[in-house]
Design a protein that fits this description.
With 607 residues, this protein is of the alpha+beta class. The chain has 9 helices and 33 strands. Strands 17, 19, 20, 22, 27, 28, 29 and 33 form an 8-stranded antiparallel β-sheet that branches. β25 (505-510) and β26 (519-525) form a beta hairpin. α2 runs parallel beside α3 (100-115).
């Protein structure tokens, strides 16, 4: 987690003061003041959302020795926080002795969620029932208080096993549905079969398994199966690829492990339990913050009850506000699309019609559609779909094969077309193939004095930084600054080029009409093997470089009008110095569009 997100979290939790309401820590049985976190429902479409996990609360509800205040504070945080919490899962051992009076107390605390119609699941731990029994034990105080009848008003509850001790929920988050299984302390053979049937009825949903006992951890936080946990793995988890995350309590200390299922995919196995800590764990909550865009789950653990009172706590209490060890505060990297592809492949959206990309001011629009692996024709080239006649012809550098410039089935899911070009170029000697505008192309005379936008989709291969491709260009002019009458900086440089440094950073460098030297925009270093959208936008005075729709930092403020015209063609996938092509591009290039005005980012081809 970066520093800014950590600061945001700590402030929200009351750990930095930030104007939160605080009070002296009263007698430890009394309710504490609660910080104000705002009141709003979770956003089910936001790609950033949080699953809240609550482990063993048994010592808080232990006959006449309990205290509901910590749990009450945690449940208030869940319904009023800024974490976009979409669901809460309790991992069992709600109570210490499983007595009706204990369940009456914790039931009153959970009424807060019921009143807010906030979705949650519970399951029975070994302290909630007779531990020697399985889910066929019959009626118990747990079932009376937290059985299926309690969930009738829940928007996520989808049913329970006939005995009532195993349940499943489907919640919506990140624009999709997720399945959560809540299994008993000891699901019977019938209970495990019921769980398998739930997965079979929901074959496309990623699943999270919650259960009281599955793995335990050593002092280093390395988790491994208990004897019963191994049975659950063998009979339920290993053969069901949908289950990607398991959560259990029961044991301490906390820990985690990763194990591959029968499909060869990772399953993350986590134990979280703090009943051995100060004040029975102080109703510690584990937050799993999913970020689908970043392909990570950020995990952190803290006590809202203690956080509410942070300024007045003593040393022992302050140490328990937040757990920051590697078993409690970490990030998981999960490529969600790849991990779920076996049961929930993301459908490939159809290509967007070329006509939709011909917005006002379009000068040229090229999309690279051809048979996978076929070389670009030396005679047919690539047609300009704008209808303005800026067609491209192929050029093959000496000693290079036709396959050095070929059509590819790879594409960015955000680009309008569903194909690309694969350039296999290099330098010293110059090699590969590239495209240039035909001699008759009207675009060759353009200076874009009123502004312009050049945008493209780019993917760099893993070996781009091997020293053989520095300053490879994806777009630019063949003529240099000297031929355009410029004497500043290095007149041998192209009058315009969108190049890539040896560190894989974009550089948009032009000799503007109104300057004698070069005006340059720089991006940050780019990720390899990922599709990236780039756009250089000039409004007639200033140029802004955008990467994936976001402006970069190093954009010059000095006015730069248009692009000096040295005569000659525009190049796609080549860099020319002193008007001589030194190298062809190395990587993939998707749709390219040139517009004779400054586009708002909302008009980019990103769709």
């Amino acid at each position: 987690m970066n520093d800014s997100s950590r600061r945001t979290f700590l402030r929200g939790a009351g750990l930095l003061g930030a104007g939160a309401a605080v009070s002296a820590l009263p007698a430890l049985g009394a309710p504490a003041a609660s910080a104000t976190f705002g009141h709003h429902g979770p956003d089910a479409e936001d790609g950033r959302f949080t699953l809240a996990v609550l482990p063993d609360t048994q010592y808080l509800f232990d006959a006449d020795r309990g205290d509901p205040a910590p749990l009450d504070a945690t449940l208030r945080y869940v319904t009023g926080g800024d974490e976009n919490i979409v669901f809460l899962a309790h991992l069992g051992d709600l109570t210490e002795n499983g007595q009706p009076g204990e369940f009456d107390q914790i039931s009153r605390s959970f009424q807060h969620l019921d009143r807010h119609r906030f979705p949650y699941s519970t399951l029975a731990g070994n302290h909630d029932i007779e531990s020697s029994t399985d889910d066929q034990r019959g009626r118990t105080p747990y079932l009376d208080a937290f059985g299926p009848q309690r969930q009738r008003g829940s928007r996520t509850f989808r049913g329970a096993s006939p005995d009532g001790y195993n349940s499943h929920h489907v919640f919506r988050a990140g624009g999709r549905e997720w399945l959560l299984l809540a299994l008993d302390w000891r699901p019977s053979a019938g209970g495990l079969e019921w769980a398998r049937s739930v997965l079979a009825r929901n074959p496309r949903l990623p699943a999270i398994l919650t259960i009281h006992e599955l793995v335990w951890a050593d002092e280093a936080g390395q988790a491994q199966f208990s004897e019963f946990g191994q049975k659950v793995w063998d009979e339920l988890i290993a053969g069901n690829d949908q289950i990607f995350l398991t959560l259990n309590g029961h044991f301490w200390p906390p820990g985690r492990a990763v194990k591959q299922n029968k499909a060869g995919h990772d399953v993350h196995l986590h134990i979280t339990n703090y009943q051995d800590r100060y004040y029975g764990g102080s109703a510690m909550i584990r937050l799993y913050r999913f970020d689908l865009a970043r392909n990570v789950i950020d995990v952190r653990t803290f006590s809202p009850w203690l956080a509410d009172q942070a300024p007045r706590l003593n040393e022992l209490q302050r140490q328990e506000i937040e757990r920051t060890g590697p078993a409690d505060y970490f990030s998981l990297e999960v490529d969600f699309e790849s991990r779920f592809a076996g049961f929930a492949p993301v459908p490939v959206p159809p290509a967007r019609p070329a006509e939709r990309q011909l917005i006002r001011g379009t000068v040229a629009y090229w999309r690279f559609e051809g048979r996978e692996g076929a070389p670009v024709s030396a005679t047919a080239g690539v047609r300009d779909l704008s209808g303005r006649g800026n067609d491209l012809v192929r050029v093959t550098l000496p000693g290079s094969a036709p396959e050095a410039l070929r059509f590819s089935g790879e594409f960015s899911g955000r680009q309008p077309s569903r194909s690309s070009l694969r350039f296999d170029g290099g330098k010293k000697p110059a090699r590969g193939g590239y495209l240039r505008t035909a001699d008759s192309a009207p675009m060759n005379a353009e200076t874009f004095a009123r502004g312009y936008t050049v945008e493209a989709f780019v993917k760099l291969p893993a070996d781009f930084k091997d020293g053989k491709h520095a300053w490879a260009a994806i777009f630019g002019r063949q003529g240099d600054g000297g031929k355009a009458g410029k004497t500043g900086d290095d007149p041998g440089e192209p009058s315009a080029t969108l190049s890539l440094s040896d560190g894989a950073a974009f550089q948009w460098a032009v000799f503007p009409v109104n300057q004698n030297g070069i005006s340059t925009c720089w991006s940050h270093e780019l990720a390899l093997q990922e599709w990236i959208h780039v756009a250089a936008v000039n409004d007639g005075r200033r140029t802004t470089l955008y990467v994936d729709g976001c402006p970069v930092l190093r954009n010059p403020k000095t006015p730069a009008t248009g692009i000096a015209n040295p005569g000659g063609s525009w190049l796609i996938g080549a860099y020319a110095y002193d008007s001589i092509v030194e190298q062809a591009f190395h990587g993939w290039l998707g749709d390219v569009r040139v517009v004779g005005r400054a586009l708002d980012p909302r008009e980019f081809m990103l769709g």
